[in-house]
Amino acid sequence: MANNIKFIKGEGIRLYTPENEEYIDAVSGTFNLSLGYSHPELVDALKKQVEDLIHVSSSFTGELAQEVLDSILDEAPEHITDGWMRDIIGSTANEGAVKIANKFNGKSEVLSVSLSHHGQTLFTTNISGNAFRRKSFANTITTNNAVIPAPYCYRCPFSAKGPDCGYLCAEAIHDYAQYGSSGGVSCMIIEPILGNGGNIIPPDGYFKKVREICDELDISLIADEVQTGIGRTGHMFASEHYDIKPDIITLAKGLGGIGIPAAAILYKKEYAVLEKFEHSYTSGGNLLSLTASQKTMEVVSRPGFLENVQVSGKILGDFLYKLKENYPVIGDVRGIGYMWGLEIVDKDGAPDVDLTNKIVDVALSDHKMILRGSRYGFGNVVKVRPALTATQDDIEEIYFRLNKIFSQL
Ligand SMILES: Cc1ncc(COP(=O)(O)O)c(C=O)c1O
Fold it and tell me: Per UniProt, what is one GO molecular function of this protein (predicted)?
C-alpha cells in the first residue's frame, strides 16, 4: 500500500494527518494493534517504563518475563503450561517453535499448508505456503519441507463438497509425510484461520482430523496464533475455541497491544527442551515488550472485554453478509470476532484481484478508510480486522463506508 499520506497522531481506530484529516483504520495496522492506537493505559505504563529503565539484558528480566508468561498461560488452553519470551516478532517465534519440535522429537522436516504465512526470515519464507515470496531467494527452496493443500472449502483444492468430503486436505498429510518428505517430518505448523491467505476458516472437524493424523505419525502440531491470538477471534486463543489441541502455540502481533513488538512461544510441559543459548535475541523479551504485553493481557482479560468482541463481531459479520446480498462481487464472507474477509469475484465467480486492489485503493483515496487485500495485492480477499477496542459505533462507521465503496464500484 504505497502512498504519500503521513499520520502524526492516532487514537482508537482513528488516525490523523498534520492537517487534522481523520482516517479510519479498519485493519488495526497490520492486525497487530489489538488495543488500537495509543491506548492510554498502555501509553502510561510504557511512559513510566521509559522513564525508569528502557533496557537491561535478558539476564536480568527473567522474573518479569515469567510473570508475563504466567499471565498469558493463565488464559491458554489447559494443557499448555510453559513458555518462552525471547523473541519480539512472529517469524522468529515460529522458528523457535520449529526448533523446539525438532529437539523434542529428533526429526527435522516441517509440513505447512498452502496459502499460509509464517513469516519472512529465510526459514519461515521456506515453510510458508505462498511460493511467490520465494522467487528471488534460492536458499528458501532447498530444504525438504512440504506444503499440503489448504482447508479452503470455498475453492476446495479437491473440488470436494462438505460435510462428507472425508477431509481430503487433512488426509494429504499421510501422502506428503510418506512421499513429499524424506520420512522425518517433525512438525506441522498451521494458522487456526489462514490470515494473509484470505481469512480461510477450516471446516468443522478438520483440526480433530489433523490432530489424529499428527498423533498417528508422531508429528508435533504448532498453532501459529500470531494473527488469531490475544482475542482477535473474540476468544483469547483460537486454538481453544476450535479445540485444536496444539503442542506449541506462537504469538506476536496483538500481544504488544499498541504496536510494541512482542512475541511468545507457549507449549506443553514436556516441550520445555530449549537451552537459553539456543533461541534468544538481543531485543527478545526487552522491558518495553514485556511492559506492553503485561498491560495488554491485563486489558484483554478483563471481564466483558472479549464478550464485546464476540457481540460486536457478530454485528460486523451481519453487516458484511448484508453487503454480500447486495453486491454480487462479494462471493464469500468469512470470519469470527474481529477477523473477517470478503472474497471478491468476477461475474464467473473467479478471483478478481484487480477489483480487490481497487476496493482497497478507493477506500483510502475516496473514503479515508484503510483496508488490506490478501497476499498484499496478489489475492482477492478484502480484510476487515479493526482493533479489539472498536465500539459498535466504529463498526457501524466501517460498514457505512464499505457500503459506499461497493455502491461506487
Ligand atoms: C500468521 C502469521 N505468522 C507469522 C507472521 C510473521 O510475524 P512477523 O511479521 O512479526 O515476523 C505473520 C505476519 O504477518 C503472520 O500473519
Answer: pyridoxal phosphate binding
Q: Which atom of ligand 1 is nearest to 191's Cα?
A: 1
HSE of 9, CA atoms in CB hemisphere, 13 A: 8
Q: Measured from the CA of 91, which atom of ligand 1 is nearest?
A: 11
User: Both ends of the chain: CA-CA distance in Å?
Assistant: 19
Instruction: Report the residue among 27, 32, 91, 237 best suited for mutation to probe ligand 1: largest number of ligand atoms under 8 A from its CB.
Output: 91
Are residues 370 and 307 located together in one domain of the fold? Answer: yes
Q: What is the DSSP string of 364-393?
A: HHHH-EE-EEGGGGTSSEEEE---TT--HH
CA of 140 to the centre of ligand 1 (A): 17
Q: Does a structural domain hold residue 191?
A: yes
Task: Assess whether 331 and 391 both reside in one domain.
Answer: yes
Q: Report which DSSP code applies to 123.
A: H
Q: How far does residue 96's CA lie from ligand 1's centre (Å)?
A: 13
Rounded CA separation 273/96 (Å): 11
**Residue 354 Cα to ligand 1 middle (Å):** 25
| Together in a domain, 343 and 294 | no
Which residue's alpha carbon is nearest to atom 3 within ligand 1?
118
Q: Do residue 251 and residue 140 come from a single domain?
A: yes
Which pLDDT tens digits describe the chain residue by residue (409 residues)?
Answer: 557 899 999 999 999 999 999 999 999 999 999 999 999 999 999 999 999 999 999 899 999 999 999 999 999 999 999 999 999 999 999 999 999 999 999 999 999 999 999 999 999 999 999 888 888 887 776 567 889 999 999 999 999 987 789 999 999 999 988 887 787 999 999 999 999 999 999 999 999 999 999 999 999 999 999 999 999 999 999 999 999 999 999 999 999 999 999 999 999 999 999 999 999 999 998 999 999 999 999 999 999 999 999 999 999 999 999 999 999 999 999 999 999 999 999 999 999 999 999 999 999 999 999 999 998 778 999 999 999 999 999 999 999 999 999 999 8
CA of 19 to the centre of ligand 1 (A): 33
* Best of 95, 193, 199, 253 for a ligand 1 pocket test (most atoms within 8 Å of beta carbon): 253
Residue 254 alpha carbon to ligand 1 centre in Å: 11
Distance CA 199, CA 336 (A): 10
Which protein residues touch ligand 1 with a CB less than 6 Å away?
Answer: 89-91, 94, 117-119, 191, 195-196, 224, 226-227, 252
Yes or no: say if 386 and 28 are a contact pair by the CB < 8 Å rule: yes
Distance CA(85)–CA(74), nearest Å, equals 15
